[in-house]
């Protein structure tokens, strides 16, 4: 589990194709690896990767074909900058939101504008993910926890404050770029709860979660 608060910007030192899989060597920048062990998880541009080799200034991780198909790793090249975050511990401040590192798909940057000192982006995700994206809800972009400021159809707007831009790769994004996105965990689970009853065979338990129940419980406004 992660929070979406980026700890370092690293870069890809090596990208090795292994059939449909990829093995990455990541230079970790200022990320503190002193407490990282083999088998630990590091979110790399929002993707939860397992450390299979460890160096003093980086790590090696394998990416399966399934993950390659859902993320931007299929076209990443040596030298690409990536956002890095180690998995949380029980004492970690949850400064962002709950991030699993299981990317849902790729969104396209449609527009970039300066608004004062901030950068404003419009992004277009796959249409099937649009239903999980809500005004003032949380979303993860290349591993960064962000707040959705506006939604139009399945497209959405983000405002990146200077500190976040300076500490992540988002400062370099431009129209036409692709980013890894992970929608809010709660939205996905709520959808599953609400659809569970209609999908069950005869005699199976049915969900009691309804729109009315969610509204009474404060999940809907």
TrEMBL record:
<protein>
    <recommendedName>
        <fullName>Riboflavin synthase</fullName>
        <ecNumber>2.5.1.9</ecNumber>
    </recommendedName>
</protein>
<dbReference type="GO" id="GO:0009231">
    <property type="term" value="P:riboflavin biosynthetic process"/>
</dbReference>
<dbReference type="GO" id="GO:0004746">
    <property type="term" value="F:riboflavin synthase activity"/>
</dbReference>
<feature type="domain" description="Lumazine-binding">
    <location>
        <begin position="98"/>
        <end position="194"/>
    </location>
</feature>
<feature type="domain" description="Lumazine-binding">
    <location>
        <begin position="1"/>
        <end position="97"/>
    </location>
</feature>
<feature type="repeat" description="Lumazine-binding">
    <location>
        <begin position="98"/>
        <end position="194"/>
    </location>
</feature>
<dbReference type="InterPro" id="IPR023366">
    <property type="entry name" value="ATP_synth_asu-like_sf"/>
</dbReference>
<dbReference type="Pfam" id="PF00677">
    <property type="entry name" value="Lum_binding"/>
</dbReference>
<keyword id="KW-0808">Transferase</keyword>
<comment type="pathway">
    <text>Cofactor biosynthesis; riboflavin biosynthesis; riboflavin from 2-hydroxy-3-oxobutyl phosphate and 5-amino-6-(D-ribitylamino)uracil: step 2/2.</text>
</comment>
<comment type="subunit">
    <text>Homotrimer.</text>
</comment>
<comment type="function">
    <text>Catalyzes the dismutation of two molecules of 6,7-dimethyl-8-ribityllumazine, resulting in the formation of riboflavin and 5-amino-6-(D-ribitylamino)uracil.</text>
</comment>
<feature type="repeat" description="Lumazine-binding">
    <location>
        <begin position="1"/>
        <end position="97"/>
    </location>
</feature>
<dbReference type="InterPro" id="IPR001783">
    <property type="entry name" value="Lumazine-bd"/>
</dbReference>
<keyword id="KW-0677">Repeat</keyword>
<dbReference type="InterPro" id="IPR026017">
    <property type="entry name" value="Lumazine-bd_dom"/>
</dbReference>
<dbReference type="InterPro" id="IPR017938">
    <property type="entry name" value="Riboflavin_synthase-like_b-brl"/>
</dbReference>
<keyword id="KW-0686">Riboflavin biosynthesis</keyword>
């Amino acid at each position: 589990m992660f929070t979406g608060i980026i700890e370092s910007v690293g870069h890809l030192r090596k990208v090795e194709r292994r059939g449909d899989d990829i093995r990455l060597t990541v230079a970790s920048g200022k990320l503190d690896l002193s407490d990282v062990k083999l088998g630990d998880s590091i979110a790399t541009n929002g993707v939860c990767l397992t450390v299979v080799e460890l160096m003093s200034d980086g790590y090696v991780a394998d990416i399966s074909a399934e993950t390659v198909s859902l993320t931007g790793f299929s076209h990443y090249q040596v030298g690409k900058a990536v956002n890095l975050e180690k998995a949380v511990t029980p004492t970690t401040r949850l400064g962002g939101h709950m991030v699993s590192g299981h990317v849902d798909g790729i969104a396209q940057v449609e527009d970039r504008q300066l608004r004062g000192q901030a950068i404003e982006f419009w992004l277009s995700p796959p249409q099937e993910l649009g239903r999980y994206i809500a005004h003032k809800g949380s979303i993860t972009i290349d591993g960064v926890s962000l707040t959705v400021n506006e939604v139009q159809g399945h497209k959405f707007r983000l405002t990146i404050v200077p500190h976040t831009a300076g500490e992540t790769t988002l400062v370099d994004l431009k129209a036409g770029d692709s980013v890894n996105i992970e929608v809010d965990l709660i939205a996905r689970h709520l959808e599953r709860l609400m659809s569970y009853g209609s999908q069950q065979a005869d005699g199976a338990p049915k969900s009691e979660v309804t729109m009315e129940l969610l509204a009474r419980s404060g999940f809907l406004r």
